[in-house]
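Feature request, filed as a ticket because there's no other form

It would be nice if the structure record came with a short human-readable summary line next to the tokens. Right now we just get the raw output. Example of a typical job, pasted below so the devs can see what we mean:
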Amino acid sequence: MTDHPPTKIEEALSLQFGIENVTLHYGLTQDELFYAAIENDKGRVSPGGDSNQQKAFPTALGIDGPLVYYSDPDCTGRPVKDTFAVARPEVEDTVWWKDGFERFDPKAFDDLLERVVSYLNNKQGSLYVTDVFCGWDTEFAEPYRFVGEYATHAYFCNIMFPKAVRDDSDRPETGWTILNVPSFIADPERDQTKSNRAVIMDIVNRVALVVGPADYCGVNKKTMFTVMNYVLPSKGQLSMHCSANVGTDDDSAILFGLSGTGKTTLSADPDRLLIGDDEHVWTDLGVSNFEDGCYAKLIDLDKEAEPVIAAALSMKGTLIENVPPRAGKPLEQTNPQELDLFDGSRTENTRFAYPLTCNPGVATGAAGPHPKTIVLLTADAFGVLPPVSILSSDEVMYHFVTGFTSKLAGTEVGVTKPEATFSACFGGPFMSQKPSVYAELLAKRMSEHDTRCILLNTGWTGGPHGVGSRMSLKHTRTLLNAALSGVFDETTLVTQPILNLRMPTSCEGVPDEILNPRETWDDPSEYDEQASKLREMFRENYKKKNFADLGIAAVM
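Raw output as currently delivered:
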């Protein structure tokens, strides 16, 4: 393994943190990181295991295939309850404090950071460093430096984030650094954490600290997304949890949606170029991706329905996370296509990181012009929302800050019937400023560019989950394509009186009767009762979140 000259990086990290007695592996190639991860990444993999277990493995394809990585068994997803921001006076009034993004005392953070650096210097171990950017837009891309104990995490960051977007000579002044130290076990009494791990963002000093068993790869992605959701709105630019694509007529579209609503599936269209599938910014120039990769869920993957992901599983430079090995067969002898993607014994949140270029059609520079259409996706398991609704400007703001979808029975312990889920701006946990900030920016952009908006329901029709059936993907795509082409701009609309949503009465290629959900139920009175219940859930959420105080009109 050959490291690049480390002199400048040693000086930078010594000046920034006081890191001095460690071996720095800076700017390694993906091949070098692949081998380093297999040889050096150690930690807990199995429940009850020690902290010296191998974390990363090759498959039978070796360097020409994916790296397989296992996070701590207690951290197979984002450690929501252990995520904080440093409550310095400069950001105290602007951060959206909430469960999953709570205040961390500034002095306690400064002491903890000093303690972690002292630990690293005394340990005299190794740190892997890679420099990337968060964002493709040359004006608003933020320099991002990953510094951490695991080569796998550096490898992941190189997959997920753009490189060499622009000159980075301003990195010392404007760049962000994540210091990721899984071997440092936090002490709640000493460190003022909630457990033995923590993810803490110091927005003022442009630093994020990750300590303890918080080694799920997605932490290194979502932490920077949360950062961008603070930085960009402060500059008047709209950061978004959405997918985006662009058609042949330069007609960009943005699709907001929570997990399970079809955000990734619907943005993958053979007739449109993909801008990205998860995190974007809408600036004065248009829409652009934050990322250079995709981080897809693998559990229960249908390879025929998702051929791009299926093919990428065997590709060089990719990363499979937390998919269990086949019984009795070492990973080193396993072809990645042989892995059981239906095995959720380790976690239901198995993941796969792969370069954006694995997709067959990607927009140049992962960017597109100002969107002509915005789509708010929901998967209504109560079976009462129309398959498509045309939204006014007030309705857009209401449904955007509401961020509704449904949890289904069986998806979580204790969930025995459909439950309403409300996540502001369709990404509440990652929205570090108040919802009204994003809503006002969205309204401003839509007004400036005369952007239309629809609410697209990919959930149930003919009754609730367990009685009715899931919306046909074919019909959903037909409705989406009609909206993108402007069919609903001049069409006849009727209003659903309980939910106060305007629906088209016809759309070529879709049966008229499914456009009005009440007509799909065997007993219309049962529909009215269920729709009234959902309306009350919306109203309770509106009141609970104090949306009226934020200037959001009560449209339902």
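Something like this underneath would help us a lot:
The two ends are 61 Å apart (CA to CA).
Residues 518 and 527 are 6 Å apart (CA to CA).
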